[in-house]
């Protein structure tokens, strides 16, 4: 089959809702379908509805998201999309993934669930625009796990059809794209969730409850970091001159998407794209939406007044293998001004002074207050007050923040109830904007004074091209 034959079924053939659940009689009896057209104008799903899901990007992370969502009660994966028919992600620990493995996984899952021994109801595409055009009537919700530079285009295409959206972090590749997606989701009234999975966990809830209870007193400093990527992504510092053939089954033009086209090279994909400004934002774009999340929630941070960044060296093309970002936030509510630092790659956060001997801080986040320090692992896991004597003496407050069944389940529950889950794009959008502002500061080499409402660095007009990048013709948002 030629690479441009991207619809797995015969071109122009369209599958109905009945066919999606008709892989077996048992499967047909298992689900109750409510067409999207009968839902309210808010796009909220009726509680009895099976959520028909499409997945855009079923590579490394996307395959995991798809499987997690497919195992939630009341979810039916009806279509998948990926530019690669079959890709080896063994270097990242997830084995073989891509379009054809995803289709096989879905069909096998429903064959086993329906006890029929066979099921062929999952549609496959390489272009998400074609998928939404042809399958839109069959789709209620979309999971997006492409490289960052495609997030906004895919999100907006789905939102504009009234689809509920789960999108991996960061929400978009640039501040401008993030703002567009946030505002579009609000206008459409769809149920949204970003893939910062720790946001639905117990650790972040305990951290927020303790801070709001006054466990640390006045907090003036927050430090977070992660060593992901670093020099591992930087096999090249300038664009490769070689032009090896595109791997079989890849649609490289679609992979480039909104980014300016360049010839394929394995220095870009499938592993190292986060190291290139055209496609990612380095470690801060990868991990800060995970590890800084509890600070945004606990303090209702909003936008910073300024941010500056230093690094061990970047180029116009590639990110740094280590960087330190410093954000300043104004006083708000009952708290005073706050400084938050993020340490990327080979730049490690300083060890918390209150941490006992023999204990290490390997990344995550910690909060320094005048009464103590809270230390969390990555994704806000395992929070502890240090020194340990203060943890033992602390009388924990009631658990007042609602607990969820899990990140993916929480999103599906919200779709069925019509009530937006905490952590929707109204929350994760502004957080993503702040995170990505750090990358803008790094690229300009200046301390930026930030006007969030107008998306302007008031002292650095040269930042505009990073705040709103140019999009390839035909991909304008």
Notes on the structure:
Helices cover 30% and strands 17% of the residues. By secondary structure, the protein is α/β, with parallel strands linked by helices. It folds into two domains: 17-197 and 417-422, 3-Layer(aba) Sandwich (Rossmann fold); 200-237 and 274-403 and 429-459, Dihydrodipicolinate Reductase, domain 2. A nine-stranded mixed sheet has the order 15-14-13-9-12-11-10-16-17. It has a six-stranded parallel sheet with strand order 5-2-1-6-7-8, with helices on both faces. The chain has a two-stranded antiparallel sheet with strand order 3-4. The chain starts with 16 loop residues before the first helix and ends in a 10-residue tail after the last helix. Residues 1-47 have low confidence and may be disordered.
Layout of strands and helices, then pairs:
Blueprint: H1 17-20, H2 25-30, E1 51-56, H3 60-70, E2 75-81, E3 87-88, E4 96-97, H4 99-114, E5 123-125, H5 128-135, E6 141-144, H6 151-159, E7 164-167, H7 175-188, E8 192-194, H8 202-212, E9 219-226, H9 252-256, H10 282-291, H11 293-299, E10 306-311, E11 322-329, E12 338-345, E13 364-369, E14 373-376, E15 384-386, H12 388-393, H13 407-417, H14 425-444, E16 448-451, E17 456-457, H15 464-467
Parallel strand pairs: 1-2, 1-6, 2-5, 6-7, 7-8, 9-12
Antiparallel strand pairs: 3-4, 9-13, 10-11, 10-16, 11-12, 13-14, 14-15, 16-17
């Amino acid at each position: 089959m030629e690479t441009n034959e991207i619809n797995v079924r015969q071109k122009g053939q369209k599958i109905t809702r009945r066919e999606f659940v008709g892989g077996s009689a048992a499967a047909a009896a298992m689900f109750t379908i409510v067409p999207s057209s009968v839902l309210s104008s808010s796009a909220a799903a009726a509680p009895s509805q099976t959520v028909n899901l499409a997945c855009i990007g079923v590579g490394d992370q996307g395959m995991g998201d798809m499987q997690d969502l497919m195992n939630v009660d009341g979810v039916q994966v009806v279509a998948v999309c990926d530019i690669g028919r079959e890709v080896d992600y063994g270097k990242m620990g997830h084995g073989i993934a891509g379009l054809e493995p995803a289709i096989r996984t879905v069909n096998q899952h429903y064959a086993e669930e329906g006890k029929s021994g066979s099921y062929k109801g999952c549609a496959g595409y390489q272009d998400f625009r074609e998928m939404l055009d042809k399958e839109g009537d069959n789709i209620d919700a979309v999971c997006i796990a492409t490289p960052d530079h495609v997030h906004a285009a895919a999100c907006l295409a789905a939102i504009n059809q009234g689809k509920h959206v789960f999108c991996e972090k960061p929400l978009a590749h640039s501040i401008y794209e993030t703002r567009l997606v946030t505002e579009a989701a609000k206008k459409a009234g769809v149920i949204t969730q970003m893939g910062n999975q720790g946001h639905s966990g117990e650790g972040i809830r305990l951290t927020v409850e303790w801070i709001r209870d006054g466990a640390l007193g006045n907090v003036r400093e927050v430090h977070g970091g992660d060593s992901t990527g670093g020099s591992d992504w930087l096999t090249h510092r300038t664009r490769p001159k070689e032009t090896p053939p595109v791997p079989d089954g890849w649609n490289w033009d679609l992979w480039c998407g909104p980014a300016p086209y360049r010839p394929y090279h394995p220095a870009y994909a499938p592993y190292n794209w986060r190291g290139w400004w055209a496609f990612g934002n380095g470690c801060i774009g990868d991990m800060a939406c995970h590890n800084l999340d509890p600070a945004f929630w606990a303090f209702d941070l909003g936008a910073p007044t300024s941010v500056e960044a230093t690094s061990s060296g970047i180029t116009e093309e590639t990110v740094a293998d280590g960087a330190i970002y410093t954000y300043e936030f104004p006083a708000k509510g009952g708290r005073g001004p706050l400084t938050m630092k993020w340490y990327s790659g080979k730049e490690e956060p300083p060890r918390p002074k209150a941490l006992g001997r023999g204990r290490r801080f390997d990344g995550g986040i910690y909060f320094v207050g005048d009464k103590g320090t809270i230390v969390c692992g990555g994704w806000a896991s395992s929070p502890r007050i240090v020194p340990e004597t203060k943890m033992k003496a602390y009388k924990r407050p009631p658990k007042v923040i609602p607990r969820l069944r899990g990140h993916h389940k929480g999103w599906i529950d919200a779709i069925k109830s019509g009530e937006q889950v905490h952590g929707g794009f109204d929350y994760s959008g502004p957080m993503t904007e702040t995170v990505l502002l750090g990358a803008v500061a790094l690229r300009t080499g200046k301390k930026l004074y930030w006007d969030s409402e107008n998306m302007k660095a008031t002292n650095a007009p040269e930042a505009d091209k990073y705040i709103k990048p140019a999009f390839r013709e035909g991909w304008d948002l």
